[in-house]
Design brief:
The protein has helices spanning 32-43, 58-67, 83-92, 113-126, 166-172, 184-190, 210-224; strands spanning 2-8, 26-27, 30-31, 48-53, 75-78, 99-105, 128-134, 140-143, 146-149, 156-158, 162-165, 197-199. By secondary structure, the chain is an alpha/beta fold. The radius of gyration is 18 Å and the shape is globular. The strands form 3 sheets. Strands 1, 4, 5, 6, 7, 10, 11 and 12 form an 8-stranded mixed beta sheet that branches. Strands 2-3 form a two-stranded antiparallel sheet. The chain has a two-stranded antiparallel ribbon with strand order 8-9. Helix 1 (32-43) packs across helix 4 (113-126). It starts with a strand and ends with a helix.
Length: 225
């Protein structure tokens, strides 16, 4: 079965700050986006990699790619107004029949080949596979002006990549955008499909804040030693 990896690099990275979105910044000498591209290629060098990039940064990324000799083949498509539209653009740029499709955030540079492999195998069996971590912190929720203690064992923190049967995901994306679509699993579930969770990885962090970037620099440097 054909394997596809969509890497969403459409965000502006406003919480990090600066003129250049975080996915194009250099982390220990390498563009952040390149980490995810390499992870999927190292998992399977025959995989089709599609990267969704904001239109105003398309030429910028091509320049960075060529200057830094990033030769791993990958298709580039326009990122949309919302994440939903970026993924939809990527899906419509390829054939999804008889395929398994991973959707990953470029802001998660440290996903392992082991996790990618587990996700593709579980998705082939269940239709989709979503990595998730248990919640270790105490949770409370607001109800009628009172903060109620939540049972944290009933909650999970969701990660990417999220892997799906390609045809089922494409059918799910043949819908109108909704504010509840915060990830691909939400789109898939809204189409009447069942979401299947597996264990994620602590190291598979999402870089959102300056503190996250500092930790990523430490982690990337440690990995090189």
């Amino acid at each position: 079965m054909k394997k596809i990896a969509i890497i969403v690099a459409g965000g502006q990275g406003n919480r990090i700050g600066g003129q250049i979105p975080k996915q194009f910044r250099f982390l220990n000498g390498k563009p952040l986006l390149a980490y995810s591209i390499e992870s999927f290629y190292n998992y399977d060098n025959g995989i089709e990699i599609i990267v969704a990039i904001p239109s105003k940064f398309l030429e910028y990324w091509k320049s960075v790619r060529d200057t830094n000799k990033i030769t791993i083949p990958h298709k580039i498509v326009n990122g949309g107004e919302e994440r939903f539209h970026s993924v939809k653009n990527a899906l419509t740029s390829t054939g999804c029949l008889n395929s398994m499709v991973a959707v990953h955030d470029a802001a998660r540079p440290f996903v392992s080949i082991i996790l990618i492999d587990k996700l593709y195998k579980q998705a082939a069996e269940h239709g989709c596979a979503i990595p998730a971590l248990p919640v270790s912190s105490t949770l409370r929720y607001l109800e009628d002006d009172e903060w109620i203690l939540a049972d944290r064992s009933k909650y999970r923190l969701i990660q990417t990549p999220q892997v799906f049967n390609g045809e089922m995901l494409m059918n799910a994306y043949n819908s109108d955008y909704d504010l509840s679509f915060t990830d691909d699993a939400a789109v898939y579930e809204a189409a009447g499909n069942i979401v299947h969770l597996i264990d994620g990885e602590e190291e598979n962090i999402k870089i959102t804040t300056p503190n996250d970037w500092e930790f990523a620099e430490f982690f990337a440097g440690k990995a090189l030693k």
